[in-house]
Design goal:
4 copies of one chain form a homotetramer.
Chain A lengths: L9 E2 L10 H10 L11 H14 L5 E5 L2 H12 L4 E6 L3 H4 L4 H4 L4 E4 L8 H10 L7 E8 L10 H13 L3 E5 L3 H5 L8 H7 L2 E5 L9 E5 L8 H7 L8 H12 L2 H22 L12 E2 L2 E3 H7 L3 E2 L1 E5 L4 E7 L6 H13 L1
Chain lengths: 348, 348, 348, 348
């Protein structure tokens, strides 16, 4: 993933280029001088938790807010595993590649598997379990998946059920990284609901940062075994914010009127519009994505011209003529910018 | 430190009961839809860094923003120490008591020293260096101090110079936790400036969370040896926020017109008013504090009555009749509340 | 603890100055070319385990052999504690002082307590439990004691029973470091048996290195909760020796005919002879010890003269005239050397 | 690698089935009652170090003895890397597979590469360096290789020179795991000397355990940057044996008259004899090995019959008819056993 130089013209580099949704800003203003308890024990966090539990249809879920995805991953994983236990991840998994060894820094190996689409199946996991047969090797105890994956694909309900059943049968915890769960659940192909996740995974998190919040991920723990003294882990890793209200207010706003889903829908629609038009112009894609990240394959010359007006990452080389780029849309992506991009691509 | 039950009436429990200063909220609104690079490479962080370098009179300082104090402490300390090296702290030091073993979780021992006033002197440190004589013991390599300390005291310039000289002579890095640096630098007894800190410590951080920001601490690294690849450490510990702009904007607002010092002054004035009046009513104090935390000693009956209208921590017992309470003021403390507290105390 | 220069004349510096008891050497010769399974799955380890289980009167005890005491401590402690949990130790405890931060390197804080005699009581532990009240602090979960302690004292059965009851009542695991357990159990004041330890502590280890073996400590796990997958922890910390037979053979020899106790007795008798005669010559002691480490207080001049013929550690200064020295005897200490020392002291 | 059941008949399972070479036993007897300083500061360690420095033609080499290979690997690697730095290894590397996550337990990621023969080349390493471009990923800083590799192959001098040059040019430390260095240096194809290793790698270790010692690996540090305070790392990881003499005596015996090489030669000759005869009988091999581990491919029926008289590992399946087995010879392998094995194979 080489960095194209940052351009102020219009950025499709990621889904965190802007601030927060105006409702959130307004709620911050409205609550600003209310005195509240610190460290997540404020009323706003409590309200957000109650709203989420209802959406999850899981009144017993433990819910904790942290500031970012790497933090959520490292806290959940290190709180669950014993020292010699490992976590299984797709090779492309965020914990395996893009967290500067955060999981290893807590003492645990990531067992990675090659996948084509960034998703794990029992068939990917079985050989790892068979191979790790004795105490000379780590003991895999957790499966880490992402929805959407790092390459824009999503899990279907059937796939997740199969994984869930397999994990239960094999003594593995199933943990879902939902940094882009908003886009996943709003994908045109999605058949999963928030409440499905209450039953199908042991723990997961709902990404706020990439779907309209300034910062914030909501960790949801379904499995009672994993709930004990979780806040100790958060504090130790520096994740217990003195003004936890900042996280509670944002999640309350995102979920009280389903703003979270509206934002995910907007992001996906902008991506679809890009996809459909890019395809119509005769270009192919690295993966078929129905989420807010798309990976078109374009001629290098075209890429160079586009990069004068648009910011995006060059994902990988295809051959000497062509490369894959990544275009990311978000809650804040302007439709005019999408239209202009398509127009510009057509005219190159 | 026993928790008194939280009361919605008026809280002197801490300096993070409210949101952020209105200037910060306004700046968040104003910048909200500007697209910016992620992970602290945005223009607002850059502006904040430049303003801070000027205030520090240290154009070469490395400055990084993180979300909280425990995070700042654990990242700086673990980035500096080799595996067998330790950090020296007052027994009351935040890293020694109130971070759930965050430093040990990165592999390092905290060598703690009893102190009366929460401050370290060369005399406190020398016996530790003498004792740790060979490879059967950890090797102390860093000294951790806080200004203000956890019990409200501050370092005078002369004291810090002495520590600095001692540390240099003994191969120790000096690191200052400035979670409440605003209050320290605005204390009536203070003779230190921000730019003094550029010369007297190897690294320190400037606390935003407890002086008007939602979240945010600015880590300042003066010593060139400690600057290398610092962002890798931040990312690994989950401290590199995707929307780093949230931190940059706040520090820009706090420092561009010295708002940071105005807020510190307000907090201290409110604390002084409390102190002077409590003293005038004949009560003593655990420590003489000129910062925003004061520790009056009151009869238990009085405490009980006060706790019906005010929230505060009971710090420790003195005897069967009296206890120490902690009162904390902040940028947001209302003078009417202070007046009322004094009035109520007078009438008990 | 300053090092006196090493002297080839006669050393009372420690109990590991010589090799191994001749029975052990003979057994190594006798078994040398027998092919055996690796990593502790050999017949000699199995034989040693069976002998030990019988001595312990605990057929369900899990027993594992490792090469040294620091290794035993760090493996047991890190295998038991969750990331945010801590271990309570006397200030003088080996894990707190003389293991170069080995416990912290596995991520855990050591909560240390000042004691006079190196032993812990419920009264020492209670304030620590009371203080650590919430998730901003580590959660103490284990108590670490040593028998003999680092300053030569021993636990009486009643004391250990009291500790055991207290720990059970407070959700604390009790772990006993038995690096010098041989000397403790052979002390004239001892009323504990190996089988008592099966009931009174959750885990402990029996030190071979300091009682006649080349290397080797036998970790005994009584509490079923702590037994799971223990060998994974050993392997991860580099403690699973390919030729585990080396450890099994030694413990078989030490315990099959109670050689372990004979050696402990010899060491203690040599120490007693030293103590009684030093006392008879009018000198005092730092602690009253009935084990193989004694701490006489001698005039500095006397110490200087003795150090021309004997090697020992100067433990601490008493005043400008006198210091405490540490004399250690072992299974290999020659009675002539003891007699000569007494004679020399008498003639100074 | 499935375990065939252990058989007392004759074992080719590994090179640590027997005790130690008789010279070592004799030296243990001869030195047994000599009083010596503890923790590796004894005369025997010093003698062994001097002999080794001469063999290495590197009088400045730092040499330390530890008890096993996993311990050597985890201490060297964790002492060198900063928290966010990683080590590159072949997928088959011992640290990547067979150390129960020992490296990750010290906080560091292992970047693994698929190789055919277990050896690394610059071409294997380059893509890893290119991929790890910024602070969102670990920073590879060390290359870990084994000689012989885990699958019996060896490095030629030219290959090691190329790696050395590449590592220097790219700021990477080169570390060689020599658990089976004896067999490597005695291979018929070897053109490396011990003194070559002084110039070509930053650190390596010489395996004693698998070449005639009870326990013991000699860590050799060539690069001055890596020498500082190394014993602190050893102590912290539980590797500083109180009776370090046990390691010194063994290495003195192995090297004072080149016993180490005689034993390596014997092991290799026994393996060659097996290889040549197995090949002559028409069987193929997984890898071409000139060291003490060979990997013949045999019909499953044949394997089953052989396993009634011989112990060995079944390494992997080839197809439904055939499997790869691993045969390991050692300093103690009896030529009659080798002859009998060949005879038995011929008659199946």
């Amino acid at each position: 993933m080489t960095k194209a130089p940052y351009q102020p013209i219009y950025s499709f580099k990621n889904d965190y280029s802007e601030g927060a949704h105006p409702n959130i800003l307004q709620a911050l203003v409205d609550t600003n001088l209310q005195q509240q308890a610190g460290y997540g024990e404020d009323e706003y966090c409590q309200q957000a938790i109650e709203i989420l539990r209802e959406k999850l249809q899981n009144p017993k879920a433990d819910i904790h807010f942290v500031s970012g995805g790497t933090q959520a991953n490292l806290i959940v994983i290190s709180s669950v595993l014993r020292p010699y236990e490992s976590v299984i991840s797709a090779n492309t998994g965020h914990i395996n590649v893009h967290e500067t060894g955060a999981i290893e820094a807590t003492g645990h190996k990531v067992n990675s598997v090659d996948t084509e689409d960034g998703k794990l199946t029992p068939e990917d996991i079985k050989p790892i379990l068979e191979f790790h047969a004795d105490e000379h090797m780590v003991k895999p105890r957790m499966v880490y998946i992402s929805n959407t994956t790092e390459i824009g694909t999503i899990y279907k309900k059937k796939e997740l059920e199969t994984l869930h059943t397999f994990c239960k049968a094999n003594g593995l915890y199933l943990f879902l990284d939902g940094a882009r769960l908003g886009s996943a659940l709003c994908s045109s192909e999605n058949d999963l609901s928030l409440s499905d996740l209450s039953h199908l995974v042991d723990a997961f998190y709902i990404g706020g940062t990439k779907n309209g919040a300034f910062i914030g991920e909501a960790i949801v723990i379904n499995n009672d075994e994993l709930k004990r003294e979780f806040r100790f882990n958060m504090k130790q890793k520096g994740a217990l914010l003195a003004k936890g209200r900042l996280l509670g207010i944002q999640f309350r706003e995102l979920f009280k009127d389903d703003l979270f889903f509206q934002l995910g829908n907007h992001a996906n629609q902008m991506a679809s519009k890009l996809s459909e038009n890019i395809e119509a112009l005769g270009h192919g894609f690295l993966t078929k994505s129905t989420s807010n990240q798309i990976f078109p394959i374009l001629p290098n010359e075209t890429i160079e011209k586009l990069s004068k007006k648009y910011a995006f990452y060059i994902w990988s080389k295809v051959d000497s003529e062509k490369s894959v780029i990544r275009l990311v849309t978000s809650w804040a992506t302007k439709e005019e910018a999408v239209n202009q991009f398509i127009e510009d691509l057509r005219n190159i």
